[in-house]
Amino acid sequence: MPDPFKFSKPRSRYAVVGHPVSHSKSPSIHRAFAEQCTVTMEYEAIQLDLGGFAQGVRNLQAADFGGANVTLPFKEQARRIADRLSPRATIAGAVNTLKFADDGGIEGDNTDGAGLVVDLIQNIGISLAGTRLLVIGAGGAVRGILEPLLGAGVAGVTLANRTHEKAERLVQEFSSYGLVEACVLAKVGQFPFDLIINGTAASLEGELPALPSTVFAKTTLVYDLAYADQLTPFLSLAKSAGVDRIADGLGMLVEQAAESFAIWHGIRPDTARILADLGDHA
Q1: What is this structure's pTM?
Q2: Are residues 237 and 134 both part of a single domain?
C-alpha cells in the first residue's frame, strides 16, 4: 500500500519498541529488506519501560530516528501519541508503525491487518471468503486485524475474550464493517470454526485461554499471532485436539514489516525471499 503520508527527508535509524522486545526478529527482517532494496538503514530493538512509552518515543524522535515499529503492549498508546493517523489506524484504534515527519509531527499507521491477510491468502493459501472465524482477545493486536479480515469477506467474526465487556465494546466499534459477535470463552464451542486466531499475549506468557475443545476440527486452521522457535502453547493445544493445520505469526510479522518499510522508504520488499530464509512457518 502506498505511503498515506507525504515523504519526509531520508532517515537511516529505525527501531522496534515494546516490552519485552529482545525476542523480536524485526531487526534481522528490516536489515534484510534494506540490503535487498539497497537502502542505508540501522534498525534495533529497544525495550521501553511500561510507564515510559511516550517519553521513549520522543527520545527516538530527538535522536533523529525516522520512525519505529510498535509491539506489545504499546499499540493503543501509540495511537494516542500520534498527531496524524492513516485511515486504517483510525479504524483500528491502534498503531504499530510510527513515522517522524519533518515538521515534528508523529504519523501513525497500522500494518498488522494487511500483513495478516497477505500471509493467510498468499503464503498459507487459504480463502477467507465465507470463513467462520473465531478471534481470541480484544486488545491492540486484535484491533489491528478486525477490519481487514471483515473486508476480506469472512462470513463473520466471533470475538472471545477473558473480559467479555471488552469484546462487547469491539463489537460495537466494528459491527459497521461486517458481522461481529462477542461470546463468553466457556460458551464458544457450540460448533467448530474454519479459522481460529489467537490475538492474546497468552502464548508469550506460557498461558492458555480456557477454550473448549469443540471449537477445533481436524480441518480448522489455527493461527497464533505470536511466534516462537518452538510451537506456542496455543498451537500445541490445537495439535493435541487433532488439528492438522497450524501457523504462527512469523509470516504476518514479515508481511506487516514490508508494509512498514514501504511507508518509510517508498518501496515494498520481496517478502518471499525473507520467508524462505526464515524457514517454513506454517
Answers
A1: 0.91
A2: yes
